[in-house]
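*** Backbone structure tokens ***
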Amino acid sequence: MFKLFASAIATTVLTGSAHAEFNLHILHTNDIHSRIEAINKYDSTCDAEGEAAGECFGGVARLKAAIDAKRSELGETVVVLDTGDPFQGSLFYTTYKGAAEAEFMEAIGYDAMAVGNHEFDDGPEGLAGFIDGVSFPVVSGNIDVSQSNVLAGKVMDHIVVEVAGEKIGIVSALAVDTVETSSPGPSVVFHDEIESLKADVAALEAAGITKIIALTHVGLPKDLDIAAQVPGIDVIIGGHSHTLMSNDDDTTPAYPTMVDGTPVAQAYAYSKYLGHLTVTFDDAGNVTAVTGDPILLDASVAPDTAVLARVTEMGAPIEKLKARVVSDSAAVIDGSREMCRAMECPMGNLVAEAMLDRVKDQGIQIAIQNGGGLRASIDAGKVTMGEVLTVLPFQNTVATFQLTGSDIIAALENGVSKIDEGAGRFPQVAGLKYSFDATAETGKRISDVLVKEGDAFVPLDEAKVYGVVSNNYMRSGGDGYDVFETKAMNAYDFGPGLETVVADYLAANQPYQPFTDGRITAK
């Protein structure tokens, strides 16, 4: 483990000799998003059958085992860090509101963590409760929590930890648009990420700290800017964009990606990988070498038995959650495969309208949901959370972004391109109307696209930029929606779980009346 020096102590000039060369092993995670249980290839909960077949990844029990093994192998030169967003994304979070994440991160033995935007999903109180449940420091230098009656004094601007006798400074920054993507409230004040990092680096350097790591939750593009604009940072360990960086896959950024001599690393999300970056410092604190790659936590990593037993124990009440009644439906909500993959369907309208309603205050006008993501119907009468989860079993999260009108048309063309095959890409929509001709040439099937502006539908302007909401699977190019991955502007992929959004919408509109209204027309 390590010794922690509070940021106030960091103003004292350090004395003592340093080693001529120091190899620091940084084990890191980001954006675990409450994947307490192991996950499958779709990043949702892996079942017992999948575990028996060796098809599961990650989970806190496997993460614990992997980190313990590395600590045993590498000794005291290891520091274990997380760059935020352990909150939100599974029924463990819905049930325990951060307490499960705190318990398991404490058991794993993290040395420090950055604040992610989703740590504010239940307001400052949610983050405060988490911090009270862990012994490791939680850091974020560009948020001022001094005016918060629950967070004041709990989040540190910067810290110094001691690893194998070496003092390592840690600075941090959180995306300033957290005020839009989560619920920090008015008592949490955000400052510019780069300017705040410069100030914290200067404070550490004034205290004689020569080795500085930035734990950031701002996304890879911003991390690259930080690396170029903030001198004095030796290593950036990032999160927020869920980026897989790897040296074994030409389609991913390199691990690490170097910017003006500064390594930038991130390790995907959902506990599927454990980042392992080895950084060599010289006597003056300069980085002289850096190597590493994320470690895939697949079936070859046996889960820690004690942690796994606790996960099973805490999972028992979740079965009760599935039985919880969330709403009432006046009629069957048809989510049949045959309907939702070929035409407007009541379940598609429900899910698309729920997504759009959740983010309408963020300037979003259009919702697009793949019909293949809808896996069941819901009977008339009482609606349980289990039924909602049966419709939406993939633990997809809400994704928002901007697209030009022409790219929206391209997305719709993709959506109807394999209708004759019953493909899951068929686009269910809200805030939008369109017609299609399944007999026309692929790529020329869409016509009469209208978008809702105010109370009226008007023709889509191909040159105009529109706000769009979808799910993270589609936003990452799933179901052929490459245009969402390659052309999206100002994308934010990791909002609340889609099943939670739909359950909340049903609860707010009960008894729910299923409907179709002609928003999708076949010619």
User: Anything to note?
Assistant: The radius of gyration is 24 Å. The domain at 324-522 is CATH 3.90.780.10 (5'-nucleotidase;  domain 2).
